[in-house]
Every structure is written in structure tokens, then in C-alpha cells.
Amino acid sequence: MNRMTLSFDAKLENEAFARTSAVAFLMPLNPTVDEIMEIKTILAEAVVNCMIHGYQGREEGQVRVSVSYDETHRVTIEVQDSGVGIEDITLARQPLYTTRADLERSGMGMTIMESFSDEFEICSHPGEGTTVRLVKQLQFHE
Amino acid sequence: MKCIQQDDALIFAFCGDLDNLSILKIKADVIREIDRVQAPVVKFDFKDVTFIDSTGIGFLLARYNQVQSYRGELILKNISPAIRRLFALSGIFQIMRVEKENDRKEVHV
């Protein structure tokens, strides 16, 4: 088992830092190009959600990213904010549903996280924040 | 990002990681240029794009509506398998056309 945790301000420029750091941490598993792309995309979706929806642009909010893997190359990703939380998780998970059409959001973030992972859970309480937890099984490479 | 006019087409060639921050940086320029030229065909070229996420899908859908509003057509170019998989989740290909490699070559049999 190996684990890393990052905590950073909810500034948009930190999203690239989060996705590239997560991928760098997983390099000992020798992931494929497709796996790297999917993990980057999962991180981008989850972190941008914290910034735009959780903290609604308040840059002093803290985003916490935790990535771990075990000897079977099962990767667990957790992304957490202490923002406004989600009122209706079922609705939020609907493809193309967005509360921020004004920002040209597509409403596809959660659909993408779900289809690029093997397990996808959302835990959220209005006024307290949101945690998403994803599991992705990477292939074994010698 | 590069923007060129070729015949009746306005072509945007994007490059690098097309993430939330970079789309914020280019959005106003793309909107203004599309409105200024009102070309019958607007092409988005993804040949040099290394990363894209749902922010890109939102941007694409909004520009599709913008081009539609003056009855133009938005065409996508050089969609890699990774980008294709991401875009397919949103049903984008049901409304937008992807230019084939040989679309511009004359073929006589």
C-alpha cells in the first residue's frame, strides 16, 4: 500500500498541478497511455467541481486530493472540499445536468468520472462539503 | 492557438492541454473571431491537443450554438481515439461532423 495526499487553494491554476502530481505518483505502476489520460481526466473533473461548484470560485477554499494504490494495482482517488455541498446527488449525476450553464459547463463531469473508473461514490452534505471517491484497477505490467 | 481563414472556412487549431484554465484564456478571442467573420464553416482542429475534459465539451457545445445562430456549420478535425472516447459520452457526434482525413482531396475513380 502506498498513499499520498495534497492540499491546495481552490485556484484554477492548481488543477493542472493536481492531475500531473497524481499521475507522477502512479508512475511506479507503469500505467498505459490510456490509463494516464483517464486518471488525469478524473482528477481534472473532480478538482474543477470543488473549485467551481463546491467553493463557487472562492479561491481560499482548500481542496484535498488523496491517491493510493495496493499491490494488485488497484488505485483509489479521493477528492474533497469543504464547500456548499450537493442538495440532490441523483440529479447532479445526470448526464448534461449542470447548475452553471452560465459558465458554459457541459454537465458531463460526473458521467466522465463514472465511465473512466470502476467504482464511483459521492458523499455530500449541504453546507459541509463533498467527497468523491473513485477506484480504478490498472493493468499489470512487468 | 492558431486561427486562419481558408476559402470559406475559419479554422482554429488548438494546442497543448485544453483544460479549464486554458479555455478561459482563449474563449473570448474565439467568440469574437467567430462573430466577426461569420464564416459558413468553422473548423476546430485538435491535432496538437494533449488533454481535454468536460470543460472542453461545454466550450464546444456553446460554440456550436453560436455558429448555428447564423446558420454556419461547426466541423471537428483530427480527433484522437482518446478525445473521441471522451466526446462520445456527451453525444456530440450526433450533432457535429468530423472531417475525414481525405475530405479535401478530389477522388476520381
Key descriptive features of the protein:
heterodimer; A: 142 residues; alpha+beta; Heat Shock Protein 90; 5-stranded antiparallel sheet; 4 helices; 32% helix; globular; B: 109 residues; alpha/beta; Transcription Regulator spoIIAA; 5-stranded mixed sheet; 5 strands; sporulation (chain A); HATPase_dom (chain A); Anti-sigma-factor_SerPK (chain A); protein serine/threonine kinase activity (chain A); Anti-sigma F factor (chain A)
Give the helices and strands, then pairings.
The complex is a heterodimer of chains A (142) and B (109).
Chain A: E1 2-9, H1 14-25, H2 33-54, E2 62-69, E3 74-81, H3 89-92, H4 109-115, E4 119-125, E5 129-137
Antiparallel strand pairs in A: 1-2, 2-3, 3-5, 4-5
Helix pairs in contact in A: 1-2, 2-4
Chain B: E1 2-6, E2 9-18, H1 20-37, E3 41-52, H2 54-68, E4 73-77, H3 81-88, E5 97-98
Parallel strand pairs in B: 2-3, 3-4, 4-5
Antiparallel strand pairs in B: 1-2
Helix pairs in contact in B: 1-2
Pfam family, one (chain A): HATPase_c_2
Enzyme class (chain A): transferase
InterPro entries (chain A): Anti-sigma-factor_SerPK, Anti-sigma_F, HATPase_C_sf, HATPase_dom
